[in-house]
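C-alpha cells incoming
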C-alpha cells in the first residue's frame, strides 16, 4: 500500500484531486494523503456503509473537499479531465469481459488530467497456464496456513463465482490501447500485483 502511494506521489507531485475506486474504508487514500496532503477526494464504492466510514476518515485527514459516489464503476460517469490520481485496489478483477475492461480503462483515461496517473493493486492471473497452476497452488497453500483447507476452498469457490481477473500483461496492453504511457510494475507476488501508468 505504501509503495503504491509513494509511486503516485512521485509521478504526480502536483496532484490536487484523487479518485479512489472501490475505496472500502478509505485506506489507500489515507496512505496517499501522507505523501500528498490536503487533496480533494472522490470516493467510490458499492457499499453505502463503507462510503460513510471512508468519508469520515478521509475528511479528518485532509482540508480538501471529500465527496462520495455509490455505484458500479462500469455505470458511473467520472467526467473529463477531472482528477489527477486514480487508485483502484482489489476492484478491477470483477470486470467480466474484454469490452468492460476496455470501457473502464478508457473512462479512467478520460477522467485524468494530462500527466495524471492511475495505480492498481489487484488479484491477477498469469499468461502461462503452468505458471497460473503454480501460483494458484502457492496462494492456496498460504490460505491453508492462514485458516485451513476449508477456508482455502471457500476463497477459491468465491473467486470462481464472482471474479474474472486478467493478467498484468493484458492490463498493460489495455492501458496502452486507451492512451496511457510510462507503465510500471511496482511488484508482483503470487496472484497479486501492483502497477501504474501515466496519462499520455
Amino acid at each position: 500500500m505504501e509503495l503504491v502511494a509513494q509511486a503516485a506521489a512521485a509521478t504526480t507531485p502536483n496532484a490536487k484531486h484523487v479518485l479512489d475506486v472501490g475505496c472500502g474504508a478509505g485506506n489507500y487514500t489515507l496512505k496517499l494523503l501522507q505523501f500528498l496532503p490536503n487533496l480533494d477526494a472522490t470516493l467510490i464504492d458499492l457499499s453505502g456503509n463503507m462510503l460513510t466510514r471512508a468519508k469520515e476518515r478521509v475528511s479528518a485527514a485532509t482540508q480538501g473537499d471529500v465527496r462520495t459516489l455509490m455505484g458500479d464503476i462500469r455505470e458511473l460517469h467520472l467526467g473529463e479531465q477531472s482528477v489527477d490520481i486514480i487508485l483502484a485496489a482489489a476492484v478491477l478483477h470483477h470486470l467480466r469481459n474484454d469490452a468492460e475492461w476496455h470501457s473502464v480503462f478508457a473512462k479512467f483515461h478520460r477522467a485524468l488530467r494530462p500527466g495524471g496517473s492511475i495505480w492498481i493493486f489487484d488479484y491477477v492471473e498469469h499468461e502461462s497456464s503452468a505458471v497460473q497452476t503454480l501460483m494458484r497452488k502457492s496462494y492456496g497453500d498460504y490460505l491453508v496456513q492462514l485458516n485451513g483447507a476449508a477456508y482455502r476452498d471457500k476463497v477459491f469457490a468465491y473467486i470462481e463465482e464472482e471474479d474474472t481477473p486478467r493478467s498484468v500483461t493484458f492490463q498493460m496492453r489495455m492501458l496502452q490501447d486507451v492512451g496511457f504511457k510510462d507503465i510500471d510494475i511496482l511488484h508482483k507476488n503470487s496472484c497479486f500485483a501492483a502497477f501504474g501508468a501515466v496519462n499520455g
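note: The chain has seven helices and seven strands.
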